[in-house]
Amino acid sequence: MAPPPLPGGDLERAVLEAVWELAEATARDVHDRVGAPTGLAYTTIAKVLDRLVAKKLCKRQRAGRIYVYAPAIAREKVEQATARSTVGRLLGDSPRPAIATLVDAVASVDPDLLDELARVVAARRRARRGS
Fold first, then answer.
1. With b meaning 16 or more CB within 10 Å and e meaning fewer, what string describes 101-125?
2. Confidence of residue 131 (pLDDT cuts 50, 70, 90)
C-alpha cells in the first residue's frame, strides 16, 4: 500500500490540522482559524482546501452554496508518512552516522527512550524472523 500524500508545506499542514480539529468545516471556518490570524486572504485558504481535496487528504460535500470539508485520511497516517519521509531524508544514502547521531539526540532528550527504542527494535527483529 502506497503511503498517503503529504501536505505540501506549513500552510497546507495548518489547514489540514484545522480540518482534523473541526471534523467538518467550511472554508470560512478554516479561514477564521488559520487565515485571519495570519493575515491570509479567504481565497488563499479556499485554494489550499482545493489542493488538499486534489491530494485526497480532505473530502468535500456541497451544502447549499458552500462546500463542507472533512478529513479524508486519519491524522496518524499522515504523521507516520511524514515521520518516514523525514527519517528517510535524514538518513540519506549513508545512514550509519545519522543513526548514531539520532541515538545520541534521543538519549539527550530522554534517556528512558533508549530503552523504548531497544524494545521496538527487538520486536521488529522478532517479527521479521517470524517468532
1. eeeeeeeeeeeeeeeeeeeeeeeee
2. low
Taking alpha carbons only, the member of 84, 89, 87 closest to residue 5 is 84
| Amino acid letter for position 1 | M
Q: What spatial distance separates the first Cα and last Cα of the chain, rounded to whole Å?
A: 24
Q: Got the DSSP string for the chain?
A: -PPPP---SHHHHHHHHHHHHHSSB-HHHHIIIIIHHHT--HHHHHHHHHHHHHTTSEEEEEETTEEEEEESS-HHHHHHHHHHHHHHHHHTT-HHHHHHHHHHHHHHH-THHHHHHHHHHHHHHHHHHT-
Collect all residues with Cβ–Cβ distance below 8 Å to 15 and sequence separation of at least 6: 7, 30, 34, 45, 48, 49, 52
Amino acid code (one letter) for 67: Y
- Give Cα 50 distance to the centre of its chain: 18
Alpha carbon 108 to chain centroid, angstroms? 25
Rg, C-alpha atoms of the chain: 19
Model-wide pTM > 0.90: no
